[in-house]
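Bumping my old thread because nobody answered last time. Still need a sequence for this structure:
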């Protein structure tokens, strides 16, 4: 039987995150957007409140929460500020491959300390010439004795400037395509690793985004995740767990934009009546509400499936594409409802529109999500994919 009721524990996490966002995030969102300052103190409070690293298994000191609970938290935090939310959420993406494929020793060494103090990590896959086309990756890892030597560059890496360690995907066998990619844990202090300058992004400016360069970086063989050639599979498997969370964050942003637009439409008057009473505006807000609810339900389904041990690749892609596109449309329409005021930094929807765009790009573009959906549909029909 389908049940949309949250458990008492789930409601507690949702309420905790909502109150935290209202108290610790929203009042400071504009400042961090203006300055681009990394929200370390806010993250520290979130860590102390138990709102970070929530998926680390209990045996390593974590809460062992599922993607569903993580999604509830992500929506509420994002409703406060997605830039600050991304700074918090980046840990989950970096940790996911280690949770999925790490040995007991690797989990004790890299996951457990994150429950003992505020530590950041980053997910390093994207490159200057390899974003959606992961097969074009140029970063290499060559095994020499009991070490791997990394060379190459990663780009647009969230939390790169504050991370203590990185999850890195590199090519170990160029002749095998994506089956020749391997995954590694790379500590920040490793010699030959250089972190670039902070990128000045259009939105989510509180997030720390930088390049990472590897110049003969020596990594112990013990830092290989899984076996050689497992890297692509591990990386994509991590997305099945994290895309529902990112999608929920997009819902949180859209919700904030709708709430701002609704409130403004009840206050602003034209032709002697609040603009909400004009059908053109009323319909825009009605569309916002229905699309946000639809996006949330897609997010919840994809998170529920992975928590139940079911493959959710198609459903996670559906949630990501729909929620990201919804966030962009709702934020854009909110600016339209505000009119000239919406184009001003003095009002919140301008920031929300800038912040929304990245949801259609990171963790797989909206176009790539559609490619994934199409391939999964063909696989279900047992038709060979040609896309």
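Sorry it took so long. Here it is:
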């Amino acid at each position: 039987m389908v049940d949309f009721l949250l458990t008492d524990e789930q409601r507690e996490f949702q309420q905790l995150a909502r109150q935290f966002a209202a108290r610790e995030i929203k009042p400071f969102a504009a400042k961090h957007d203006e300055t681009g300052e990394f929200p370390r103190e806010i993250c520290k409070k979130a860590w102390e409140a138990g709102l970070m690293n929530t998926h680390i298994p209990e045996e390593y000191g974590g809460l062992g929460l599922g993607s569903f609970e993580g999604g509830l938290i992500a929506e509420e935090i994002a409703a406060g500020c997605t830039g600050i939310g991304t700074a918090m959420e980046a840990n989950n993406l970096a940790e996911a491959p280690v949770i999925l494929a790490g040995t007991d020793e690797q989990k004790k060494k890299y996951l457990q300390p994150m429950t003992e103090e505020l530590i950041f990590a980053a997910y390093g896959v994207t490159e200057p010439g390899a974003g959606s086309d992961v097969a074009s990756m140029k970063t290499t890892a060559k095994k020499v004795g009991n070490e791997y030597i990394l060379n190459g560059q990663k780009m647009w890496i969230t939390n790169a400037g504050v991370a203590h360690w990185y999850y890195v995907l590199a090519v170990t066998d160029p002749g095998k395509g994506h089956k020749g990619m391997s995954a590694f844990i790379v500590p920040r202090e490793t010699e030959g690793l250089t972190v670039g300058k902070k990128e000045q992004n259009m939105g989510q400016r509180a997030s720390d985004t930088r390049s990472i360069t590897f110049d003969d970086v020596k990594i112990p063989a013990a830092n290989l995740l899984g076996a050689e050639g497992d890297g692509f599979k591990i990386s994509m498997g991590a997305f099945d767990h994290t895309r529902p969370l990112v999608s929920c964050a997009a819902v949180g942003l859209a919700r904030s934009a709708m709430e701002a637009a609704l409130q403004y439409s009840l206050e602003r008057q034209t032709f002697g009546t609040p603009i909400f009473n004009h059908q053109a505006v009323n319909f825009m807000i009605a569309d916002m509400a229905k699309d946000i609810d639809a996006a949330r339900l897609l997010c919840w389904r994809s998170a529920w499936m992975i928590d139940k041990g079911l493959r959710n690749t198609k459903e996670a892609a559906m949630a990501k594409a729909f929620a990201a596109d919804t966030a962009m449309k709702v934020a854009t329409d909110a600016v339209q409802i505000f009119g000239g005021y919406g184009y001003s930094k003095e009002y919140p929807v301008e920031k929300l529109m800038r912040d929304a765009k990245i949801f259609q790009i990171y963790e797989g573009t909206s176009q790539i999500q559609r490619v994934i959906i199409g391939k999964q549909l063909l696989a279900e029909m047992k038709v060979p994919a040609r896309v």
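The two ends are 37 Å apart (CA to CA). Let me know if any region looks off to you.
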